[in-house]
Amino acid sequence: MEPLRSSDPARVAEHRLLGRLGAGGMGVVYLARTPAGALVALKVLLAEYAEEPGFKERFRREVEVARRVDSPWVVPLVDAEPDAEAPWLATAFVPGPSLGEAVAAYGPLTEGGLRLLGARLAEALGEVHRAGLVHRDLKPGNVLVAHDGPRLIDFGIARAPEDRTLTETGMVVGTPGYLSPEQAEGRSGDGIGPASDVFSLGCVLAFAATGRAPFGSGAVDALLYRAVHDPADLDGVPAGLLDVLGRCLEKDPARRPDAEELVRELTADDAPSDGEVADWLPEPVTRLIAERSAAALALPDIEHTLAPSDAPSDTGPAEPDPHETSGPAEPQDARPAGRRRFLLLAGGAGVLAAGGGGAWWAAARDDGSGGGTPAAAASSRRPVHTIALHGDLSGPHRDIGRAQERGLRLAVAEFNARGDAPFTVKVRAGDDGGDPTTSARLAAELTNDPAVLAVVGPTTDATGQTALSKYDAGLLPVVGVSPGTTTLSIQGFRSFLHARLPDAVLSFYVGNYLRGIARSRKVGVVVDRPAGNYGTDMGSALSNSLGDVGQPSVPEVVSAMRRDFGSAVQAVLSAGADSVFFAGLPDRGALIAATLRERAFQGARVSGPALLDGRFLTQAQEAAEGWVMVAPVIDADRKPEAKKFAAAYRERFREAPPRYAAEAYDVTGMLLTALSKLPSKSRTRENLLTAVRDGKYQGITKSFAFQKKTGMIVIDGTGGYLWRVEQGDFVYGGPAPLTV
């Protein structure tokens, strides 16, 4: 939770505001107390939207829908005023994560947990359907988890089956990957009935059982096509639930069970005992809910709106890592009392729950310039500019996102500590959770913030794809250090700077390694279709580069639905391959690693940056030993130029610098250096973008210069590095070979 800002009201109607839970393009969600003292999540819409034709009517309909549904497994509406100048509604506050957040962080549920989840969501849907409504957007992000079971939220697009005010033929409404076939086909309102919610429930349960969406990931049109035509991927679903989930996911709505039937089947003979209810979630999730509940209970009755001089700054240098909940405390005496008071509110964890279940914040500190020191006094007189981090800080790639955030913060801290710094830098960190839709909303929010002059991020190809058009609209410079697909560079985004070697270029280094160090004569190239653009870029580029020098390769493409790599391995080995390159993701990489180990394969096993991931080590275990990855990232402890950075990182964060921290540190330094060279009145987004595009910056990881037309980093022979799995860990091997 963030503290209230000076522009925030102290109250909305009779509800006293305690802090900000989140903000988006359409409004703000606050944590508030009702006149009776209960905590609520209070959503206030911007007044400008209320002036749009039909907006208040749509909002009023959402309120009416929420009032019509009465179930213990639905977050209840507490109060609302749709006709206010700035319409608002308040729902009960649930101090728990979303199902998506819980599964991504702590893994799938047990069969018992799945049965309880499914039965209680089916009960909730039964009440929705009895009210004459269809939810239409059941997905992991719209399910909050609590000790006693799930809670269904968000009735913004719920409608009666016959209501066509939202959906006309050909329009797709909802979240791809969790839509029923009838929704994916864009059928008109009377084609979307209760059975559509049952299909979505089947998708949610499949996700909770396996940790992945049953129709994969990727482009929206591909997800819609699979929902209509392809069978769901239920590999990993407990055997006792395969039949019921299979029927939920029938393409024909008439063949699906209704909500009441699902409750009976999932509950089996007896309702869960108290002990079973308590154990329905993984223990770390239960502990997380307890911590967030305690933090909420610790809130005072009133938290004053903070004046600008008291408001916790989101300046990067001295903020705690938003994801650290323990560790050595820093000295308190240099912090303003207002900030100190706010930190104490949340107890030891320093965090408070977000009512939507998706975003949490630590209390922000000041700029760390040393209280009453001369540097602090100078800093207070400087102009202030903001650099933002757009990353996956809570989803499947959170390790990379958090590493980039820390690298950025360290660069800003060092800049602000300079006595000759021409301005002070604040950091604004945004979390998209690895979700492309959230990424687009976050990009729009950052673009609309005039204080933000540049962005480092996003973390992945998919989140980059949805965000870059938003940044481009505001000509906001955005520097990516971990996305790898060349697609991002060739689409003509004016404000995007691709600060790492694209995957297709990394394949050139892979080929040099295989032909040179590994002395391979024939390479088996296994492209895994679920890896999307990454697999295609890496596999195709490697085959082409090998072909250019007359080196034979054996390509093999693995279907998205296949969980056994036996036939692919057999095909490439039978063709005489003495090495194998895998273009795929960590979980699938573990499968092919196990298959090669079973075959006692002794040749080189090589992959790209996707397998440089702790999940590969965890899932592959002994089968990972000896694998080599070619990636665009260094080990700061092993690169001489980065030793000073590594020491500073250890001092600040009490651990070794993780991968991608140094790269984010570098590009932040590049942005700040370019901005420093601009006259004060010329420090605009456009001028900063021009300065970086036209300049060259020598970092600790490599030199940075960009192609004028594409924004892609200029390839100068550096940027590809070797990593090898040794004794269960990744070991840095230095630059990948430029020549054979």
TrEMBL record:
PROSITE patterns: PROTEIN_KINASE_ATP, PROTEIN_KINASE_DOM, PROTEIN_KINASE_ST. ATP binds at residue 43. Coiled coil: none annotated. SUPFAM superfamilies: Periplasmic binding protein-like I, Protein kinase-like (PK-like). Residues 305-335 are annotated as: Disordered. The keyword Kinase applies. InterPro entries: Kinase-like_dom_sf (IPR011009), Leu-bd (IPR028081), Peripla_BP_I (IPR028082), Prot_kinase_dom (IPR000719), Protein_kinase_ATP_BS (IPR017441), Ser/Thr_kinase_AS (IPR008271). It comes from the Bacteria. Residues 15-281 form the Protein kinase domain. It holds the Pfam family Peripla_BP_6. Keywords: ATP-binding, Kinase, Nucleotide-binding, Signal, Transferase. Belongs to the leucine-binding protein family. This is ABC-type branched-subunit amino acid transport system substrate-binding protein.
